[in-house]
Amino acid sequence: MSRTYVLFFSTNHAMWAEQVLVARGIAAKVVAVPRHLSSDCGYCLEIPATAAAAAAAILRSSAVEFDRIGG
Fold it and tell me: DSSP 3-state assignment of 35?
């Protein structure tokens, strides 16, 4: 399964987002930001690539700020 990453500006937002997405049925795991990506935070979420659009919508509707999705 192809994976993608959700990058955040803070560790707190990464952990909050994981709880929000898992509660909504999206597999999400806090991981260290891969070297080929940049972020102001050292942690990001790894999610299935097929869930990227749904994850973005859920995070926006839950007021969880994120930098970008990709990777």
Answer: coil
